[in-house]
Amino acid sequence: MSVKNSLTGLGLSVLMVAGLSMAQPAYAAKSPKSFINDDDRFMALRDAAFHDDPEAAEQHAAALRNYDIPSYVDYYRLRPRLYKASNTEIREFINKYEGSAIADRMRNDWLLLLGKRGEWDLFDQQYPQFVVADDNQLRCYALLSKAVRQQKVANEARNLLTAPRDYGEGCHALVAFLADNGQFSQNDLWSQVRMAGENSALSLAQRLAKLMDVSEKRVAEAIEKPSALLKKEPDSGRAAHELFIIALGRLAKNDPEQAASILSRFSAKFSDSERALAWAQIALQSALKLEPDALGYWVRAEGAPLTNEAYQWRVRTALREGDWKLVKNTINAMPASLKNDPAWIYWLGRALKAEGRQEEARTLFNSIAEQMHFYGQLALEENGQKIGAPLASRPVTAEEIAPMEKNPNLQRALKFYAMNLRMEGTREWNWELRKMNERQHLAAAELARQNNLLDRMVNTSDRTKGELDFSQRYPTPFNESMYKTTQSLGLDMAWVYGLIRQESRFIMNAKSHVGASGLMQIMPATARYVAKKIGLGNFVPEQVNDIDTNIALGTNYLNMVLTDLGGSQALASAAYNAGPGRPRAWRSKLTRPVEGAIFAETIPFAETRGYVKNVLSNATYYAALFEKKPQSLKTRLGTVVPKGMSASDAELP
């Protein structure tokens, strides 16, 4: 969901919430409770399992012997005592429900235990059978198992260990083993510590540094109190220099200019490679703050090994400053896994086109132009075409939908959705989709439509590549209310639908972890402010979930930020997600007019960056459907100009 905000005038301040668990009431497992029916008791069983209360879970499960989803009763009975359960008991559960989503979930849980215990024979037997295979810790444990058997895995580990916040115990154990056994050098370990520092992962940085006998106190000073460490020149020795470099990056989060000044003062104390590393630390933070000086810092960082995040921000800095040569060189230097992302394929094509290498650029654009996303649309336009709604496939028939209505896994998913258990419902729904061809995907999407699960309809239909139904992918519920409201405001209805598709996927009662509600995900303070502005008398917070009220409040607010930001849909979409103050600040850092696509690409918040791209991509398809003619995403993105300059003054190459 969006990074939503409390409203003061048209300025929003971000409400950062660390996690759902902080907002949960204390669990009272022993308190007496009456149950209306078995579904009610199942919810209590689930709650006991998630709060690691095996006694309560056993009590509830015993009373659910005839429940119509026995696999989940058994799972939630076993889950809170998994650490004490025998491998035989866990295996019996998996064998009993083999081939089901919940058996795969249990295998995931079991593999984590096996990895932690170092039971590698059993781990290696079970890991290939883990179907979803989406757990980064298990990937680390799988490499650790190979390393324990004296296989060389250092290169695979380097490619995997790029996102410290996802490490967990398994990835730390992998790093520690590789360091102990000579597969990871000090360069590898310090690279990991620097990444942890970049991600504010203090505890991880301390654990990693401890592998090199560097004290927790010294690491904490570099990450939490960089100014104190940087007051004097660095001591001699590898650890002192590395911690000084990390401290420079941490200081640069708030003041890159000061960090650059300190590095320049003590430059002679470092080797050429250390200096490049230090400039890369400063350049990344300067780039995230959209400072024009970042380009110069990146130049000084030439030759430094970069993290995936740093590679991407080096390109974004170059885009913002119009340095196409640096765009090309940086993308070409990226690891293959990153370079092959559609974003960097597109921007490399643009860099080649800027050099006059038209055929090479066209080849890159052609490779992604049929993909239905932001970069595919932009690539299509680079090849001189516009964006339209493709010809619809033959509509699914009642005969094709009938097996979906009888499918036990889909029916189980529908039951979970009816109980508002979206995690379980989505697990079951997606598990069944794995077995389906594209016609069956469209039929399942239609089943979702019939059950008013528009988010499932959209997500299911989105999976197809040859069989396409845009009425499923881009639905228009509440069309009459939406048309009336947008017409009265002079607001682009395609854009509003594009925003709703991204905000809530048309879940009517959607509520984010920060309290945003309904189709248009409106925060309570925003709702009160807009209600007052538009003269909605006697407004009470509960009204925000009324469809017509939610649409009225959301569209009026969207219109306010659009007006405030000069009519730019790119800026206004960013404002709806992150608050109007932020896009104004991002625009204020511009040194020249930029394409809307470049502005979107260089938004510092990852969530907002993806949000703006998706909203405007959605809106372009909706417009093609509404107007029944091809559209231009580039036109919709427009040009973003520095404050004080009008769009008519902007002259882009």
Short précis:
The protein is mostly helical. It is about 60% helix and about 0% strand.
Your description of this structure?
The chain has 39 helices and four strands. The protein has 653 residues and is mainly α. It has a two-stranded antiparallel ribbon. Helix 17 (272-288) crosses helix 19, helix 32 (493-503) crosses helix 38 and helix 35 (569-578) crosses helix 38 (606-627). The chain starts with a strand and ends in a 13-residue tail after the last strand. The model is unreliable at 3-31 and 648-653 (pLDDT under 50).
Topology:
Blueprint lengths: L4 E4 L2 E4 L5 H4 L14 H13 L3 H9 L7 H9 L8 H10 L4 H17 L2 H7 L9 H13 L5 H7 L7 H13 L5 H13 L3 H9 L5 H9 L1 H4 L8 H15 L3 H10 L6 H17 L5 H7 L7 H14 L2 H10 L2 H4 L2 H13 L3 H11 L5 H9 L15 H9 L1 H11 L3 H12 L4 H13 L3 H8 L8 H4 L5 H11 L3 H11 L20 H10 L13 H18 L4 H10 L2 H8 L5 E2 H6 L4 H22 L5 H5 L1 E2 L13
Antiparallel strand pairs: 1-2, 3-4
Helix pairs in contact: 2-3, 2-4, 3-4, 5-6, 6-7, 6-8, 8-10, 11-12, 11-15, 12-13, 13-15, 15-16, 15-17, 16-17, 17-18, 17-19, 19-20, 20-22, 22-23, 22-24, 23-24, 25-28, 26-27, 28-29, 31-34, 32-38, 33-34, 34-35, 35-36, 35-38
